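Hi P.,

Sorry for the delay on this. The queue was packed all week, but I finally got your sequence through. Input first:
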Amino acid sequence: MIIEKFHPGKEKEIYQRLEEKGRMMPDGVQYINSWVDQEITTCYQIMESESISKMEEWISNWNDLADFEIIPVITSAQAKEKILNT
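Then the structure:
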């Protein structure tokens, strides 16, 4: 999961870049879905990758416009499996 906090005043620039260049993800990173708060200051994204370094590569395309926090998550089913089989 990615929490993306837009730099103040950069919201329009973020969406313009997205419109012009797409998500600019390297191979090995997959976009699943995202949600933006009503103030349009924070975006919560579900992304998939086997590599944190690939996620960091993707972030480097956007970190001039936003700050990012990477939170590794697993599905509820994976959590259940992990807990019940340990």
